[in-house]
Structure formats: structure tokens, C-alpha cells
Design brief:
Elements (H helix, E strand, L loop, with lengths): L40 H4 E3 L16 E12 L4 E5 L2 E9 L5 E10 L5 E5 L6 E5 L10 E6 L3 E9 L7 E10 L29 E7 L3 E10 L7 E4 L7 H5 L1 E5 L16 E4 L1 E7 L4 E6 L14 E2 L7 E5 L7 E5 L4 E3 L9 E6 L13 E3 L5 E8 L7 E7 H4 L11 H4 L8 E2 L10 E3 L13 E2 L2 E2 L10 E6 L5 E8 L1 E5 L6 E8 L5 E8 L6 E3 L2 E3 L5 E3 L3 E11 L2 E7 L11 E3 L1 E2 L7 E4 L3 E3 L11 E2 L1 E7 L5 H5 L7 E2 L6 E4 L5 E7 L4 E6 L4 E2 L4 E9 L5 E7 L1
Parallel strand pairs: 1-4
Antiparallel strand pairs: 2-10, 2-12, 3-4, 4-9, 5-8, 5-10, 6-7, 6-9, 11-12, 11-14, 12-13, 13-17, 14-15, 16-17, 18-26, 19-20, 19-23, 21-22, 22-25, 23-24, 24-25, 27-45, 28-29, 30-39, 30-42, 31-38, 31-45, 32-37, 32-40, 33-34, 33-39, 35-36, 41-44, 42-43, 46-47, 47-50, 48-49, 48-51, 51-52
Length: 703
């Protein structure tokens, strides 16, 4: 939301934790026959009774209202239940006439280990999930992001021998009136964040907020902000998170941006965290600080931005999600002045008189303002800027939100400076700095990405040659863990009976050893063709990134090969798939399979140096090896080791500790208080950072 006036003060309560993290998996094939027909189809779907007539009166130019929220009462007694493929299955449909999308809120969500929940549209061209027991939380709640359809199916699969029966209940549903994927909706005068070198790191802290209130849903912006304990705090506008329950019903989207190589391709909408705890908020100063239920996973590539209470240095940059669109930026060359905002009676706002490049728009409220050193100095409250009038925006001053009010629930100081050290600034922080995760690509900014047809056949995709698999080679200097890959279709149509697979291989000169596979499902596949927006093509792959998450990261010690595998059974022209690619390159990195792997230099149409637009997400294998750790001497004893869960450090140790898994993901980071609890069986790396002396690293085994 971009705010144009102040909201009325709300009472502050604390809310609990909730998760939305999608694991690998796929639902059963859906059709009217496979429903089981335990009940009639008329009772299978629950209608949302959404009153869309009042919603526009509530916008008043200050909120990006996206939909209407309705109370529903959907439990596992609704829909149909049956047994299939050795699983207990529950399915129920939800529909809302003319909706651009539907979001669901589970006020009861508790799954046993092995249980999997999916949400999809009736032809399964859009599939969310699997949501598993990893999403269980202390409040047993879960918000599902909007799915681009006016009807959807909820499907739950439970093993016959599950330790307990799932408890699922849906209490709220939204009828989305705007396109779920806002793409190319914002003004073109603001440059893409992914194209701005100054924003390359800072943009990893910025997130899009989708909030489900009691009457409506809406969009805003926010940013991860660093703190001494490196907790996943998000700093945003107070009028975004108006009350504690709303924090539980907020989804945070990361990495929603165009790829740097081509801004006509829509970014992936899949990196989400659902639910948060409201820590502090004030509507006069207009800020809110929330804590996400978990640190965003390594493959999200999160960054906790630094901040300062000092006078900011010019130039300044705002990174935002205007209109819920992909990340954009705006710049001002002068230091803002301190000012009031509209009818406020406190002088707690940075007034940006003029933007030299870009503007802010509705939906940008809560977006961070960074100074020349990359520190957050405030977040957007509101203003009037547009392309033809790029001036007059107001940002809540972080230095005023710091301690303008003494109450803990109304200031930042207790959370950004919990030890009372009178901190004036803090550097940014990468929670996965020991093994930074990155996206790699063979497509450069200079490459022309296109369909690339040969004899009327797509270079990469279904073709009359009958080639069924295409791979892209990545030469590695060091072993890496692969988390997943971006698949960038130029166009095509999804067919659930003809699934597309992403495969990860290792090899030297060609794919040799298959390490992992995952089936591809498009998500909210709206598209833009030749600059014309169409909402009738949600079943299409078209110029949109799809991130394919592997069930677990896989180690590649030779060269890395990522492939797309397609099928031809019962193929029609409407089912074709074409991947984006580039030709006429200096080096050929693409391969095709025809009874064996061959370079595109051997393509029947001639010598082609080609690259396929497949971008894996990888992290170097932890540079500290187990052998190196075991060969060192230690000042502190860690015991028992091996352990069944808890370990202790010598009583002489005072300081912090960091606990990593073998991939390099940070599991815990705390002051040592006499006990370290390991989350599950496995091997861990424990880093001890004493207050006095050198840090040391231990290997821990949990059995």
C-alpha cells in the first residue's frame, strides 16, 4: 500500500507463528471420475459469498485493495473422502464467480508426518504444494497465497499408518478482484531493481506483502532488517500491519523481480513465507516491526539490510513493489528534509521533495529508503509522486521510530538494540554467508533470447525430430549443492498427463550420472504477449520464470548439467513447449538427447552454438571440511559427542555459537546459555565465538 493519510491507532497484540513452505511432491490426477463421487458434485464445491460492491469505497487512494474476504466453514466433513493408491484422500472444491484468484486461510492446520496438502485449479495447470508437517506451528494456522482461478481444489493425502489424523479447517477465503500476478502494472518510469547495480544486494532484503484482513485483502512492501541476534525481522509501515491477527495472515514474497537478462519475462512468485509475529507498531510515527516465523531458506537468498540513525548520505534509493508488481527502484540526489505528513502533529518523516529517477506508487507503502552507504533510514508512509509529478513522498524516519515512544510495543530500540548499547547503525548481514547461495546462468545480458526455430521446429522443445531431453552445461571450479533451478519457458501449454521434468546430472563433457529429478508445475501462469496483457491464458507457460524446487539439495562434484525432459504420447499442437534460448554464442553449452547425449554442434540443422535458459540455484560446498576440523586442537570441550540431541560446552566458555548443517545452512545463532539442542539426527558444524580468544569449529554427530 502507498498511504495517503494516517490510519486510526489500533490496539497491539502479539500473534503466533505460521509457515508456508512448499516441499516437493505432486497430487493425484484430478477429474470428476477420480473424485470418487462419494457425494454429488454439487456438494463438492463450496461457494464463496463475496460482496464485491463495497470494496472500492474502502480504498480511498491509500491502500492497494486486491480482494474481498469472506467467512467460510470448511472442514474435512465437507467434500469427498476415499482411499486411492494406499492413501486416505480428502478433497473439497472452493469457487467464487468471476474471481481473478482465491486465497484460503486455515485456522486449524495440523498434519502428521507423511501427510501432504495440495491446492490446485481444476485442470491442475496450477499446483501449490506439497504443504507438509514442516508447516505445523504453535498456533496450527496456515495462509495459502492466492491462486489464479475462480475455482480451486484442496487435496490432502495421508498415509494409512499415519501417527494421527490431520486436523484441517478453513475459516477465511478471499475473492481476488485484481490479477494475482501484478506484472507490468506499475509505471514504466521506474527502473527494475534487478537492472540496477546499486540494488544488487539490497534488493534481496525487500519483500512484497499480501495481507488478508477481516473484510479485504491488500498489498504492501517491506524489508528484512538486521539486528544483533540476526532474527528475521521485517520493517514496514504501521498502516500495513494494523493489528496482530493481520500479521498471522500476511504472506511475504521474496525474489519477485524480472530476470536481469530480459525484463519481458515475469519473475517467479514462489518464494514465500506465511505468517509473522507483530513485535511493535505505531500509527503516528507509522512503522511496524514483525518477526517472520522462520528465517527464509538458503535458496531464497535473503539479506538482512543494515540501518542507521545518523543523518543519511545522498544519493538515496527506494526499493519497492508498486501495485504488487515486480521490484522497482527510485532515486533522489539530495538528502530529504524532516517534515510533518498531512494531518500528523509530529515531525517524524523524511520528505523527498523530488525523485531524479523513478517514483513510488500505490502498493509501495512500507518500502525501505536506503542511503548512499546502503543503510535503511526510513520506510514509505505515503505521498503523491507519479511519472509526470515525481515529487512529494514521505518516509517514516527510522531514527524517530527508534524510541519516540517509550513503550516496547511502540518502538524499535528494544529489538534492534536489545542490550541497550546505544547503537547508531548496524551493517547488513547474510545469514548464509559461510556458503552463499547464488543463481548461475549461461545467458548473458548481451544475448538475444528468442524461440529459435529450425526448419519450423523449436530449437528447445517439442519437435518433429522426436528429441525428448535437452541439457545445459555449467563448468564448476568447486563442488556445489544444487537447490533447484529456474526454468524459463518462452511459451507453451501445461498438460498434466504429459508432465515436464527437470533433471540434475553430473558429468565431465556430457550428462552422465542422474542425481535428482523433479516434476514441473506452472504457478499463476499469467502471461504477456507482444505487450498485450491477457488473463485468459492461465494454463499457459509464457515468458515467465518457474522455479523448480528439489526435494533436497544434491552435491555435484564434477560439471553440472541441468535438463528438461518432455514426453510425446498423445501430443497435440496445443501441448507444445518451447524454452527460451540463445544462439550464435562463442561457446556451445547446450545438449540434446537422441539415443545418447550430443552437443548442439551436432544438431542435424547445422553447427549451432546455443545456450538454454535454465538457471540453477547453487551454493559452494562448505569450505571447512570434516577432515580439517578433526585435525585441529581445541580450547573448549563439547560433550557428549556423539549425542542424542543435547550438547554442552566447557563452563569456561562465554560467547556466541553458530550451528550449521553440512550444506552450510545456518541452523542456530545464539548466545551460549549452558545448552545446545540439535534439531534432528545428522552431522553438524558448531562454530564457537568466545568473547575473548579465537573462534573454533567442532564437528557434532546426533544419533
Amino acid at each position: 500500500m502507498k498511504r495517503f493519510s494516517l490510519l486510526i491507532l489500533s490496539i497491539l497484540f502479539f500473534c503466533q507463528l505460521m509457515a508456508q513452505y512448499e516441499s516437493a511432491g505432486k497430487p493425484l490426477r484430478f477429474s470428476t471420475e477420480s473424485v470418487g463421487l462419494k457425494r454429488s458434485l454439487s456438494s463438492f464445491y463450496v461457494d464463496i459469498q463475496a460482496d464485491t460492491t463495497k470494496i472500492f469505497a474502502e480504498t480511498q487512494g491509500r491502500k492497494l485493495i486486491s480482494g474481498v474476504t469472506s467467512n467460510v466453514d470448511i472442514s474435512m466433513n465437507d467434500g469427498v473422502t476415499f482411499v486411492e493408491e494406499g492413501l486416505k484422500v480428502w478433497r473439497v472444491g472452493v469457487k467464487s464467480k468471476n474471481a481473478k484468484g482465491i486465497s484460503l486461510f486455515f485456522d486449524r492446520f495440523l498434519l502428521p508426518e507423511g501427510g501432504k496438502l495440495f491446492v490446485y485449479n481444476p485442470d491442475q495447470s496450477i499446483v501449490y504444494g506439497a504443504f507438509t508437517s514442516e508447516n505445523n506451528n504453535s498456533e496450527n494456522k496456515l495462509l495459502i497465497r492466492p491462486l489464479s482461478s475462480d475455482s480451486l481444489v484442496v487435496e490432502y493425502l495421508e498415509p494409512i499408518n499415519a501417527s494421527f489424523k490431520a486436523d484441517l479447517h478453513i475459516s477465511l477465503a478471499t475473492h481476488e478482484m485484481r490479477s494475482v500476478n501484478q506484472f507490468l502494472k506499475s509505471n514504466l518510469c521506474s527502473p527494475h531493481a534487478s537492472h540496477e547495480d546499486k540494488a544488487s544486494l539490497l534488493k534481496q532484503s525487500v519483500c512484497l506483502l499480501f495481507m488478508v484482513g477481516t473484510t479485504s485483502s491488500s498489498y504492501g512492501s517491506g524489508s528484512l532488517i538486521n539486528n544483533p541476534e540476526h532474527k528475521p525481522y521485517v520493517y514496514t509501515a504501521g498502516h500495513n500491519i494494523e493489528y496482530a491477527d493481520l500479521a498471522t495472515r500476511t504472506i511475504y514474497y521474496f525474489n519477485y523481480e524480472v530476470p536481469v537478462q530480459d525484463s519481458t519475462f515475469q519473475g517467479s512468485y514462489q518464494f514465500t513465507i506465511s505468517g509473522s509475529k507483530l513485535l511493535s507498531r505505531d500509527i503516528d510515527v507509522d512503522f511496524a516491526l514483525v518477526e517472520l516465523n522462520k528465517m527464509p531458506p538458503a535458496e531464497y537468498r535473503p539479506y538482512l539490510a543494515g540501518w542507521t540513525r545518523n543523518t543519511p548520505k545522498a544519493p538515496l534509493m527506494c526499493i519497492q513493489h508498486p501495485y504488487g508488481d515486480v521490484k522497482k527502484v527510485s532515486y533522489t540526489e539530495t538528502v530529504p528534509t524532516i517534515s510533518y505528513f498531512e494531518d500528523s502533529n509530529i515531525k517524524t518523516y523524511w520528505w523527498v521533495k523530488t525523485w531524479n529517477k523513478g517514483v513510488t506508487e500505490v502498493g509501495s507503502s512500507g518500502s525501505p529508503l536506503f542511503d548512499a552507504d546502503g543503510y535503511i533510514v526510513g520506510e514509505l508512509t505515503g505521498g503523491e509522486s507519479y511519472c509526470d509529478t515525481p515529487h512529494d513522498d514521505y518516509f517514516c524516519m527510522l531514527s524517530q521510530a527508534w524510541d519516540y515512544y517509550s513503550e516496547k510495543e511502540k518502538h524499535l530500540v528494544s529489538y534492534l538494540d536489545p542490550q541497550g548499547e546505544n547503537l547508531m547503525y548496524m551493517e547488513g548481514y547474510n545469514p548464509y554467508s559461510t556458503a552463499p547461495v547464488r543463481r548461475i546462468s549461461n545467458i548473458t545480458n548481451e544475448d538475444k533470447v528468442s524461440i529459435n526455430r529450425i526448419n519450423h521446429n523449436p530449437l528447445i522443445g517439442h519437435n518433429s525430430y522426436g528429441y525428448t531431453e535437452y541439457a545445459e552445461k555449467f563448468e564448476l571450479e568447486n563442488p556445489v549443492y544444487v537447490y533447484g533451478t529456474y526454468m524459463i519457458p518462452f511459451k507453451g501449454k501445461y498438460n498434466a498427463s504429459l508432465p515436464v521434468k527437470v533433471n540434475v546430472y553430473s558429468g565431465t563433457d556430457k550428462p552422465e550420472k542422474l542425481l535428482s529429478s523433479a516434476e514441473v508445475y506452472p504457478t499463476e501462469a499469467f502471461c504477456n504477449r507482444s505487450g498485450v496483457w491477457s488473463e485468459k491464458l492461465i494454463e499457459k507457460y509464457n515468458k515467465k520464470e518457474i522455479y523448480v524446487h528439489l526435494e533436497k539439495p544434491v552435491l555435484v562434484e564434477d560439471n553440472l548439467f541441468v535438463s528438461i525432459q518432455i514426453k510425446y504420447e498423445n501430443l497435440t499442437s496445443a501441448d507444445s513447449l518451447i524454452l527460451a534460448s540463445a544462439v550464435n554464442k562463442e561457446e556451445c553449452t547446450a545438449f540434446f538427447y537422441n539415443g545418447g547425449w550430443k552437443s548442439f554442434n551436432n544438431h542435424p540443422s547445422g553447427n549451432l552454438n546455443a545456450s538454454i535458459w535454465l538457471d540453477p540455484v547453487v551454493a559452494n560446498k562448505n569450505v571447512v571440511s570434516i577432515e580439517e576440523i578433526e585435525s585441529k586442537s581445541f580450547n573448549y570441550r563439547v560433550y557428549p559427542n556423539p549425542t542424542q540431541g543435547d550438547v554442552f560446552v566447557d563452563v569456561s566458555f562465554e560467547g556466541e555459537y553458530k550451528l550449521y548443517n553440512l550444506i552450510g545452512n545456518l541452523i542456530q545463532y545464539e548466545n551460549y546459555s549452558g545448552l545446545i539442542s540439535l534439531p534432528e539426527k545428522g552431522v553438524y558444524i558448531l562454530e564457537l565465538n568466545p568473547k575473548v580468544g579465537k573462534k573454533e569449529t567442532h564437528k557434532l554427530i546426533c544419533r
